[in-house]
What we know:
The structure is a single chain. By secondary structure, the protein is of the alpha+beta class. 38% of the residues lie in helices and 26% in strands. The chain folds into 4 domains: 1-61, Arc Repressor Mutant, subunit A (Orthogonal Bundle), CATH 1.10.10; 74-106; 134-209, SH3 type barrels, CATH 2.30.30; 222-301, Alpha-Beta Plaits. It has helices at residues 2-16, 21-28, 32-44, 67-70, 74-87, 93-105, 125-139, 234-240, 264-271, 283-301, and strands at 18-19, 49-52, 58-61, 142-149, 155-168, 171-178, 183-188, 192-201, 222-229, 246-248, 254-261, 277-281. The chain has a 5-stranded antiparallel sheet with strand order 7-6-5-4-8. The protein is elongated, with a radius of gyration of 27 Å. The termini are far apart. The model is unreliable at 210-218 (pLDDT under 50).
Amino acid sequence: MKINRLFEIVYILLNKKTTTAKELAERFEVSVRTIYRDIDTLSSAGIPIYACQGKGGGISLLDDYILNKSILSENEQNEILFALQSLTVTQNPETDRVLSKLSSLFNKNKINWIAVDLSPWGSEKHKICEFTILKNAILNHQVIEFNYFNTSGEKSSRKVEPIKLIFKVKAWYLQGFCLSKNANRTFKISRMSDVQITQEIFVDRLPKELPEDIKEQSSQKWIAVQLKISPHGAYRVFDEFDEKEITKNQDGSFTIATALPESEWLFGYILSFGTDIEVLTPQNIRAMIQNKLDEIIEKYKNIK
């Protein structure tokens, strides 16, 4: 991207002193004309960069130029580095490279104030690449195409104007305008595959801040449930429910009054608590759990 190329040009000149437009063009795989436009951009930003024609000429910075004293205060330098460090939790190699170079330019030790493992991004190389694809599509206003699996496991092809990546409740989501459905949608990243950037450019049709209540399934039915969780399940109670939804009982158990999606997911979620949970209401969910458990027991009865 252009902003990274501009930083790298300054970095090269600070270390190499003089280079040529041709050398820079070959390095960044762009035209010489593009490099001269970059030089004009840097010059307009107040960086003393100049080009000399003829033998022995080239592109240079003034000998006494120091980036960290030219246009950024000490606090501004730190804020830039802190912001970049926060982005490294996505384990994007490009961000880490820029952070390293800017730390060198500002003559500061590499900032290291945050460390977060956002698996599966951090554990799978193709997911890191996918994250970079989505980021670039958002910043460059490019339409993307991908296959998507909904909560029922049904596969569909989607074409989307990507707006924002968000991390919520232990998972990454993409918010955007789905051209396939002609509506706002939120997609769970782990259910996306074969993500491709198209050459189509879009203009934002949505506000920058999308409503927080956009659900992955706009038609999803949410129901009020009351749960009882034993003291052995206490470690999950305050991780997964709002404090206002929790009542601690005298025996150390917890009663939870909350809303959950009425779907197959609900059964799996309740089952994940094992014997530490009981659905108190509604009655139809209790009956569903009973029926599902009967099915499971029946399957194991038939094992010889």
